Amino acid sequence: MPIIEVKNLSKHFGAIAAIRDVSFEVEEGTIFGFLGPNGAGKTTTINILCTLINPTSGSAAIAGYDCTEDSSIVRKSIGIVFQDTTLDRDLTAYENLMLHAYLYNLKKSEMKDRIHDALHFVGLYDRKDDTIKKFSGGMKRRLEVARSMIHRPRILFLDEPTLGLDPQTRANLWEYIVDLPKKHNVTIFMTTHYMDEAEVCDRIAIIDRGSIIAGGTPEELKKTVGGDVIHIKTSDNTRARDELEQHFSLEVSEENGELYFTSSRGDACIPEIIQTLGKTVHSVRLQRPTLNDVFLNMTGKKIRDEKMSSSDTLKEDVRAYRRRFGRS
Amino acid sequence: MVEVNAIYVLVARELIKFFRERARLVSTLARPVIWLFLVGGGMSRLVTPGEGVSYMQFIFPGILGMTILFSSIFSSISIIWDKEFGLMKEILVAPVSRLSIVIGKALSGTIVSSIQSTIILMLFPLLGIKMGALSILYVLAIAFLLSFTISSLGIIIATFYESFESFSAIMNFIVMPMFFLSGAMYPVNKLPEILKYISQINPLTYGIDALKHAMFQSSSMVDFSLITDLFVLSVLSMIFVTIASFIFERKK
């Protein structure tokens, strides 16, 4: 039985349909990637699965329990890292985790060990008595990942877990995340707009304008683009082009003094090409399709770098203000 | 369904933050002290409530009420900050009944506000008010009940607002009128007819009236019977908590 089952899910906010007729399944123990541009409906879907909002129609179930009807059972089995930080910045790291442990009604005897394990796991044990105010964006994210695992959820939701982090911190955080399914037998449901991060997913669904437009493993999706692209530089491009077109019946194009063509078995055809063209070949370059190409192919647009919305900027301002002038 | 652990941790969180932010403690205590000595001191030259009670003594229960009002409302509308800065989401996705969340938040405000009103209450010898240990306990018990009523009302107010810009609106249009129409500064029965009716739907009126019962022996200072006061406060508390958890339960 799939651990997440979403059937014909729709959610309207007034006249606007945030998601329309969305259906998908996630198998236990896998990493599932939910990709799409801003405003495609990713967060709305997560919010329904996390029991924060009710769908307009359709159903979402986690481990067989309906997210609307049995929300309290669902809540016990999920852990979430939201897009915006949800730590209390006036409390210490340890206190934040303690708050979580109490909210999830952990046994008193387990609390300390689990919190210590969690802090060690993300390498923040030394900072456990610092207030969150003093934490960097990356540290907050790591702490939130640690926190979301304290009650041993069966499913972990990660909504843009690396948004706004520098590349090194991102890589660092992913090291922790990809370890989770094996270590704690947890299923991961994540959204991201960094396509390279989606490579770790076992399965991916692409959502655009509220509807799912493609799904499959990263390899399957890449195949839909039409294979690898091979670039060749030769001393005589016109002759090489003729020979390639004759011998391999390929459609060859030229750009910036380079020949290029698409092949479904890119690596295997390179030796044949070199044999045919002989010493005239200067260089051969093989480009595998990326998920970015898949995305471009499906939606006709590149996934944008998410800019800070005006409300985020405002929040930043308020945080700065409160840091300076205290609370009242 | 009530989860004791969740309620405990919500209260503990508020207390940790309260004691960590000394500035908040000082600034919330400064307001009632300023009103008591500056407004009270000035007005006592003009107004004499009679029966050997000075104006400063007369407004002392009102000043306690003010301490409770500001501190309870402030504590409850911190929910708006929690919404804005995300912690509310962490609480809402936890397997905790919405009733427990509301009770936890209301008790947080109640305890913080009771601590503050206890500190203000200790000023009574300076004003020449005579109270025995028993009356002090009475006053504290009433302060606790009133704090809970106002805190749970504050939670309802907080659910209507999404951002902290609304803070001054809440202060100007809800908190200040509640204070002035509560019998804190002048007896309710001497108010113009219309204002008298408004003050009768103000929970703070009953709280301050009950505090007057506990502090003064003279019956001319009070507007309602103590039983009425306690009944109204208890019933309102239950209504407010029920409404608040209903609002929390309803999802968008």
Question: Overview of this structure, please?
Answer:
The complex is a heterodimer of chains A (about 325) and B (about 250). Chain A is of the alpha/beta class and about 325 residues long. Chain A has eleven helices and 14 strands. Chain A has two domains: about 220 residues, P-loop containing nucleotide triphosphate hydrolases (Rossmann fold); about 60 residues, 2-Layer Sandwich (Alpha-Beta Plaits), CATH 3.30.70.260. A six-stranded mixed sheet of chain A has the order 6-7-8-3-9-10, sandwiched between helices. A four-stranded antiparallel sheet of chain A has the order 2-1-4-5. In chain A, helix 3 runs parallel beside helix 5. The radius of gyration of chain A is 24 Å and the shape is elongated. Chain B is mostly helical. Chain B has one domain. Chain B contains ten helices and no strands. The longest helix of chain B has 30 residues. The radius of gyration of chain B is 18 Å and the shape is globular. At the A-B interface, helix 2, helix 3 and helix 11 of A face helix 1, helix 2 and helix 4 of B.
Fold blueprint:
The complex is a heterodimer of chains A (328) and B (252).
Chain A: E1 4-13, E2 16-26, E3 31-35, H1 42-49, E4 57-62, E5 65-66, H2 71-76, E6 78-81, H3 93-103, H4 108-121, H5 137-149, E7 155-159, H6 167-184, E8 187-192, E9 203-208, E10 211-216, H7 218-223, E11 228-234, H8 237-248, E12 253-255, E13 258-263, H9 266-277, E14 281-287, H10 291-299, H11 310-325
Parallel strand pairs in A: 3-8, 3-9, 6-7, 7-8
Antiparallel strand pairs in A: 1-2, 1-4, 4-5, 9-10, 11-13, 11-14, 12-13
Helix pairs in contact in A: 3-4, 3-5, 4-5, 5-6
Chain B: H1 4-20, H2 22-43, H3 55-84, H4 87-92, H5 98-121, H6 133-159, H7 167-180, H8 193-200, H9 203-215, H10 226-249
Helix pairs in contact in B: 1-5, 2-3, 3-5, 3-6, 3-9, 5-6, 5-10, 6-9, 6-10, 9-10
